[in-house]
Amino acid sequence: MSEAEGTAVDDTPDGSAEVEAVVEGIQGRDRRALAKAITLIESRRGDRAEVGQEVLERVMPLTGGSIRLGVSGIPGVGKSTLIDALGKLLLDRGQRVAVLAVDPSSTVSGGSILGDKSRMPHLAADERAFIRPSPTAANLGGVARRTREAILLAEAAGYDVVLVETVGVGQSEVEVAQMVDFFALLLLPGSGDELQGLKKGIVELADVIVIHKADGDLADQARRTANDYRAALRYLGASGTAREVEVLTASAHEGEGIEELWSLVQERWEKDRTSGALDERRRAQQRQWFRRLVEEKVMDEFLSRAGVASRFESLESEVAAGRKTAGGAADELVAATRSN
Amino acid sequence: MSEAEGTAVDDTPDGSAEVEAVVEGIQGRDRRALAKAITLIESRRGDRAEVGQEVLERVMPLTGGSIRLGVSGIPGVGKSTLIDALGKLLLDRGQRVAVLAVDPSSTVSGGSILGDKSRMPHLAADERAFIRPSPTAANLGGVARRTREAILLAEAAGYDVVLVETVGVGQSEVEVAQMVDFFALLLLPGSGDELQGLKKGIVELADVIVIHKADGDLADQARRTANDYRAALRYLGASGTAREVEVLTASAHEGEGIEELWSLVQERWEKDRTSGALDERRRAQQRQWFRRLVEEKVMDEFLSRAGVASRFESLESEVAAGRKTAGGAADELVAATRSN
Question: Using a CB-CB distance cutoff of 8 angstroms, which residues of chain B are in contact with residue A326?
Answer without folding.
Answer: 148, 286, 289-290, 293
